[in-house]
Amino acid sequence: MKLIVIFLLTIGIMPSIAYSDDKVNVGYVELTKVLDSVHTSSPYNQLMATLFSRIETETNAKINTLYIPSGRLNVLLQNGSVDCIFPVVPNGYDRKMATIFSDGTNNVASFHFYLQNKKKAPLEQGEKEVIVYNRTSYFGKLFEQPHDVKYIAVDSQQIAINLLRKGRADGYLAYYPDIKVSLSEQDFQQLIFDKAKPVTESIDKMECADTEKSQNFLIKFNAELRKMKNSGEIKHILGDYYNL
């Protein structure tokens, strides 16, 4: 094999060899009907599949993707099991290693959602409004700060909505536009929120370990992403989830 490579180099031909170091492992944070292992036609599924396919076509890189629990992200990134994570809230995590970020794929913000036409009982003195949220969602360092509301984690979005309907919670903390696609249109139309008063604001990005391989990968990723933004293709792919 060495003799063949040397011969090809001497006549000016560079053989295309896929090295194992070219393989990029990307860990997906599962988001219901946004980046979803079951509903594979979800907007981020389509966006990432398109981006990765074009990168693989133009380079020798091989991109592997896997869904991983959010609680395992930090460990897997630090031990090298994954090279990158998508999507993340930039600078919302305490990493013990240097990382780099891609360009933004979409704007996201969290809000308190309430049921329409639901009369709220007046709060007694010292009582706080109860806001539930899906424990699998990540809101950066929001809960480390003092609040005039009481946040309670629940196991799913459906449980949160049911608690609102039963009057056992006043509001639901969730991301927009995620909630617009993860809920049925009928359920979403029953909710109200003040778009001028976000609880948190961020931009979805990919975060990678700061290695030469990741740097090269993000250069290609950002280049393809910019093409899609300039052409308007990203708006077409993300559909109702588009929020740039």
CA radius of gyration? 22 Å
The top level CATH class name of the largest domain: Alpha Beta
- List the total number of helices: 8
Q: Give, in order, the helices and strands.
A: HEHEHEEEEEHEHHEEHH
Overall structural class, as computed from helix and strand content, comes to alpha/beta
**How is the biggest beta sheet arranged?**
10 strands, mixed
CATH homologous superfamily identity of the largest domain: Periplasmic binding protein-like II
Helix proportion range:
25-40%
Examine the secondary-structure arrangement and name the CATH architecture of the largest domain. 3-Layer(aba) Sandwich
Low-confidence stretches: 1-20
What fold name goes in the CATH topology slot of the largest domain? D-Maltodextrin-Binding Protein, domain 2
Task: Name the shape in a single word.
Answer: globular
By DSSP, the count of extended strands is 10
Beta-strand residue percentage: 25-35%
Topology:
Blueprint: H1 2-10, E1 23-29, H2 43-58, E2 62-68, H3 73-78, E3 84-88, E4 99-101, E5 106-115, E6 129-134, E7 149-154, H4 157-165, E8 171-176, H5 178-182, H6 185-189, E9 191-192, E10 200-209, H7 212-231, H8 233-238
Parallel strand pairs: 1-2, 1-3, 6-7, 6-8
Antiparallel strand pairs: 3-10, 4-10, 5-8, 5-9, 5-10
Helix pairs in contact: 2-7
Task: Describe the structure in your own words.
With 244 residues, the chain is an alpha/beta fold. It has two domains: 21-107 and 202-241, 3-Layer(aba) Sandwich (D-Maltodextrin-Binding Protein, domain 2), CATH 3.40.190.10; 109-201, Periplasmic binding protein-like II (D-Maltodextrin-Binding Protein, domain 2, 3-Layer(aba) Sandwich), CATH 3.40.190.10. The protein has eight helices and ten strands. It has helices at residues 2-10, 43-58, 73-78, 157-165, 178-182, 185-189, 212-231, 233-238, and strands at 23-29, 62-68, 84-88, 99-101, 106-115, 129-134, 149-154, 171-176, 191-192, 200-209. Strands 1, 2, 3, 4, 5, 6, 7, 8, 9 and 10 form a ten-stranded mixed β-sheet that branches. Helix 2 links the parallel strand 1 and strand 2. The chain starts with a helix and ends in a 6-residue tail after the last helix. Residues 1-20 have low confidence and may be disordered.
